[in-house]
Design a protein that fits this description.
Elements lengths: L3 E2 L3 E2 L7 E4 L5 H12 L3 E6 L3 H10 L6 E5 L5 H15 L4 E4 L16 H27 L9 E6 L3 H4 L5 H21 L4 E8 L8 H4 L2 H8 L10 H10 L12 E4 L8
Parallel strand pairs: 3-4, 3-6, 4-5, 6-7, 7-8, 8-9
Antiparallel strand pairs: 1-2
């Protein structure tokens, strides 16, 4: 069927699809859950500790018939595998895997004194669990019949720090940088099987994670001064590109790093 819907104009529809969004109770994740539901997908999302927010989001998005919250720590390979198994069991399939969760230690930490525990902890959440998620997610998608040649979409959420580095946050930048290479590797391997993997790389976004920096006048001035648009993004402005990459409109896009940062990555 044509992507052009005569009665509704141009649509970004995920009607009949099932999505898993990690870190879905707040910020970019919650915006993505809302947008995917508006596009017609049934959504499973994970949360770690924000139970009240997770329950409220499920209710807002139509209740458990179409939206489910799963409490799951994501700090290891096994955690990622466990979450995919739980999500796929809800509605029996997985069409879209959005890997959005992550940790950014907010304190500046020079590399010379960075504790090994901090390095291991950041990479455990931001990289090890991602391996478990994509490994298990790809296995589920490979068993599904293709629709217009596509079995599923995987979208990794990285950062401008992945491309330009971030002083005093080497653990975070290294973990997100690995996602860029992972995206390209997964594309080279899985695109021929109808699984399209892409990456969205946000810059500063107004979320709880960035609140400490963006609420500080000096720190905010430094951060926003690197953005040609002169402001941080709203979470919906990141969720929109994530949704696009999971629709048929993106059916010929694979292995791309989609920069959504107000032009910041070009001027650093």
């Amino acid at each position: 069927m044509s992507l052009l819907q005569k009665q509704n104009g141009v649509t970004l529809s995920l009607e009949g699809k099932v999505a898993l969004v990690t870190g879905g109770s707040r910020g970019i994740g919650a915006a993505t859950v809302r947008l995917f539901r508006q596009a017609g997908a049934r959504v499973v999302f994970s949360y770690r500790s924000a139970e009240a927010q997770a329950k409220a989001l499920v209710a807002e998005c139509g209740g458990e018939d179409v939206c489910r919250a799963v409490k799951q720590e994501l700090a290891s390979i096994e955690d990622g595998q466990t979450l995919v198994a739980a999500a796929a069991a809800v509605w029996g399939r997985l069409d879209c895997l959005v890997i959005n969760h992550g940790v950014w230690p907010p304190h500046d930490q020079p590399i010379a004194t960075m504790p090994a525990a901090q390095w291991r902890g950041t990479l455990g959440v931001n990289l090890d669990s991602v391996f478990g998620l994509v490994q298990a997610g790809a296995a589920v998608m490979q068993k599904q019949a293709p629709e217009n040649g596509v079995r599923g979409h995987i979208v990794l959420v990285a950062s401008t720090a992945a491309q330009r580095g971030e002083a005093f946050h080497a653990d975070y930048a290294a973990s997100k940088g690995a996602l860029l290479s992972l995206t390209k590797s997964l594309s080279s391997e899985l695109a021929r099987e109808g699984i399209l993997c892409n990456c969205v790389a946000p810059g500063w976004v107004v979320t709880e994670m960035s609140a400490g920096t963006l609420s500080d006048p000096e720190a905010s001035k430094r951060a926003l001064g690197l953005i040609p648009l002169g402001r941080a993004a709203d979470p919906d402005e990141i969720a929109g590109p994530i949704l696009f990459l999971c629709t048929p409109w993106a059916g010929f896009i694979s292995g791309e790093i989609f920069n959504v940062n107000g032009g910041a990555v070009l001027v650093g």
